[in-house]
Amino acid sequence: MGSGLVRVLSENQEQIRRKVGIPVRLARIADLDITTDRGESVDPSILTTDAKTLLTDPEIDVVVELIGGDEPAKSFMLEAIRNKKHVVTANKALLAKSGEEIFAEAHKHGVGIGYEASVGGAIPIIRSLREGMAANKIVSIYGIVNGTANYILSRMTHEGSQFETVLKEAQDQGYAEADPSFDIEGIDSAHKIAILAMLAFGTQIDFDQVYTEGITKVAPLDILYAKEFGYRIKLLAVAKNSDGQIEIWVHPTMVNEDNPIAKVEGTLNAIEVIGDMAGESMLIGRGAGSLPTASAVAADVIEIGRNMMTGGINRLSPFSYLPKERKTIPVRPMDDLSCRYYLRFQLLDKPGVLSQLSGILGDHSISIESVIQKGRQENEPVPVVIMTHVTQERNLKEAIQKVDRLETVTDETVIIRVDD
Amino acid sequence: MGSGLVRVLSENQEQIRRKVGIPVRLARIADLDITTDRGESVDPSILTTDAKTLLTDPEIDVVVELIGGDEPAKSFMLEAIRNKKHVVTANKALLAKSGEEIFAEAHKHGVGIGYEASVGGAIPIIRSLREGMAANKIVSIYGIVNGTANYILSRMTHEGSQFETVLKEAQDQGYAEADPSFDIEGIDSAHKIAILAMLAFGTQIDFDQVYTEGITKVAPLDILYAKEFGYRIKLLAVAKNSDGQIEIWVHPTMVNEDNPIAKVEGTLNAIEVIGDMAGESMLIGRGAGSLPTASAVAADVIEIGRNMMTGGINRLSPFSYLPKERKTIPVRPMDDLSCRYYLRFQLLDKPGVLSQLSGILGDHSISIESVIQKGRQENEPVPVVIMTHVTQERNLKEAIQKVDRLETVTDETVIIRVDD
Question: Whole-prediction pTM value?
Fold first, then answer.
């Protein structure tokens, strides 16, 4: 990401100067490793391994933090702010947890904060929510905000391959990191939707309250069944504001194949926002990658440059609502949500098994929309797929706990929520 | 649009105040007709038929112009600016022709100009180009920017109906205006793409240089053939910057059915922007309608409010590049462009006709990719459809002129450009 920013600022230096009025100059670069060739030509005299020297350098107006994670990123950022330096960051993990604290510090010291690159890469989603839709009450945000997970699901869908196989290949091709857990476990998506919800709804979100489930258990068989029902499986990150509560979650979701978001393939990100006045808008673009992310970081640096030139620093609150106007809106417990469910049971093919199963579902007020049972092998477990009508999560979980204790059920039941 | 703005500012007054810090208050409304009930409750004392009183009222900070067209909109806007009032407008026709003049006047008098609502309704395309992609050289802009034309083409595609039938119904349903010529002749789209090109490329565009062709000649038969070839017909507005020239046009275009823009249906607008760093992004949303447009107008009013509070007025140039940094980039003549062409000839079914036709094409270096001729009725003209390889517009036009003069050709040849 750092080398991408070096490239954007040098290749488009002239374009940027013609818009801002003054050149945006890369003053210093701090990195633990300043010897590896990263393919961009940089004056070696601006390189340092001591980040602290940047935070106090009087020649520096804007500090760009591209370290990621909690520490030392957070301490560096806070020190930069206290030294009256404007800060631009792509650090979603940190902002999801400490965004309010950092923004309050920036407000106190009168410096600007840019974080467009933290969500959706090159997609200008922060600006769109904060400024383009400023006159709206935001109703909901639906998004594919992790390109790695979307790439894996897209390939599984087109090739029928296993999760592990595709992940391995994605790692070899550089589409997935060596430690892919944040991407495939949904944590990265949860960071991003937490940031968007705090911005859109003017409330603090306790990150632990974001229900988070990744894609590691999605099987090719479930993708096939989803297709039969007319759905695609996507890792959705969703936040809604209704009836005085926030619904916020990340999980694999069956999305109707006619929904435009179902057609967003590969590493692309897509975010649909519904505003009470604007109606629905969808933004699709490059959610990751060195240059798209650097494009967003540079946009924030440019904005700060423009603000510095005209006195517009602090012209808006980073999370849109002014700090004193933020209100706590409670998060609705996951158990209270309702949707249709796709359930895949692995059952021993014995008489009475299906009736036992459907009895338990009925006892928990779960009504069945359709059942698919294909093929049968004596003494071998067979998959039985059920699509339920709209059911409350609490009931569903209780029922499945009972089902999974039956002797005729050989594996943990696969549960995928359906979004209509 | 006016009543939509009244509703947005009253219904979301509290949301807006919590973001801006001060209330945004509707001070006066000027309209020729102030007696018709428009469904919004308005204090009658703020209504006037004399717009001039708003332009001089010292209590008014921001003037919103929703009159449309050239005059008196232009005079009102300039007078407001000279009286140091910030201006927000949705007037694409005026900005396409006089944008530079109006923006220069605003710059001179130190007031802000907002025009987000002039292109793409609620889609924040102006902000995205000017700020989100500020670090990019914009390569191209592809868009469906007229909802009425897209609605008509969508219905023709799904129902196989004639243009005139669908237009009539669209007018009855309020999707098309009583005088629909700006929408169906492509002029509205041309206004919008001219504004986007001036903003994206930092150049003046002479509006007469935007090649403009509407959808009135698109026939159900051509939509059917397009489907056979795997295309949809869309009214595209396109601007590209390459090799030191601007390509800019509006015309019905065959778009590959797999292209996401082919799937944008009904009154939705969609704009794809390619930046050299950000890659491709697509923004889809409500391009028209009272509330979506008002959402964009109100966003501009809010931005001006925020700027007034912090001194950030004039923090950026309305057309992105600073006035003195704008450069004239010539528009490439339409004759110099090349693409594949869909041609539908109406021929008398006589021996040798096809050979004569293909002879003329060959003489003009036009090579044929495929030919479809279906059904035949003696002494009746039959449609012959040809898809060409990539051909220069100049050659194509010369050839078709000759073809259309043949005695065996009964109607003017239908020409639809293919975008790959």
Answer: 0.96
